[in-house]
Amino acid sequence: MAEKTCLVIGGGRGMGAATAKEMQKRGYKLSLMSPSDSCEQLAEELNGIALRGKAEVPENLKSIIDFTMEKYGRIDSVLVHVGGPPKGDLLEIEDEDWDKANQMIIKPVIRIAKLVTPIMLEQGGGSIVNITTFSAFEPSLTFPTSSVYRAGVSSFTKLFSDRYGADNIRMNCLLPGFTDSLNLPDEFAKLS
């Protein structure tokens, strides 16, 4: 059997980087994408490949998937971990910020599923994991756009699983609570 490959969207720092390190320990070949050069540095450290890009840019997603297939010929696992969307008072958030949150959170999950599902069907299976947040099921007024759209990711994940589970393609969500974050406000860091 060919070596397994893991694609990490948001694989430059934090949970994405930690996942990449763990998957490398488990013998996976790595492909990383992140807006910062930290994904390139981590890929070099872990003997993987990387492209800088944003999950909300469809061409960036297609590029990393094409690059992964060119280099490794398969994609067994995908982790989707996107950054935090705009915040604000619930009814004071501008339409543009709601649209930005939609583009950042749910659209990448749908686009990635469309791109990797045919690959996984052809190779007999695979898994996609979406890191969302506790606020997908316990909405927080501190994170309104995140709460709304990450609940949508959870719904899409369930629908995808119902449709493609029989084809040996799993999709799951991880809903972490507060973690040590590079930009976590002090008031929330005390709770983690």
Question: What attributes characterize this protein structure?
Answer:
single chain; 192 residues; alpha/beta; Rossmann fold; 6-stranded parallel sheet; 6 helices; 16% strand; globular
Describe, in short, the structure shown:
The chain has about 190 residues and is of the alpha/beta class.
Written description of the protein model:
By secondary structure, the protein is an alpha/beta fold. The protein has a single domain, classed as NAD(P)-binding Rossmann-like Domain (Rossmann fold, 3-Layer(aba) Sandwich). Helices cover 46% and strands 16% of the residues. It has 6 helices and 6 strands. It has helices at residues 14-25, 38-45, 58-72, 95-123, 144-164, 186-189; strands at 5-9, 29-34, 49-52, 77-80, 126-131, 169-174. It has a 6-stranded parallel sheet with strand order 3-2-1-4-5-6, sandwiched between helices. Helix 3 runs parallel beside helix 4 and helix 4 runs parallel beside helix 5 (144-164). The longest helix is centred in the middle third of the chain and has 29 residues, at 95-123.
Topology:
Blueprint: E1 5-9, H1 14-25, E2 29-34, H2 38-45, E3 49-52, H3 58-72, E4 77-80, H4 95-123, E5 126-131, H5 144-164, E6 169-174, H6 186-189
Parallel strand pairs: 1-2, 1-4, 2-3, 4-5, 5-6
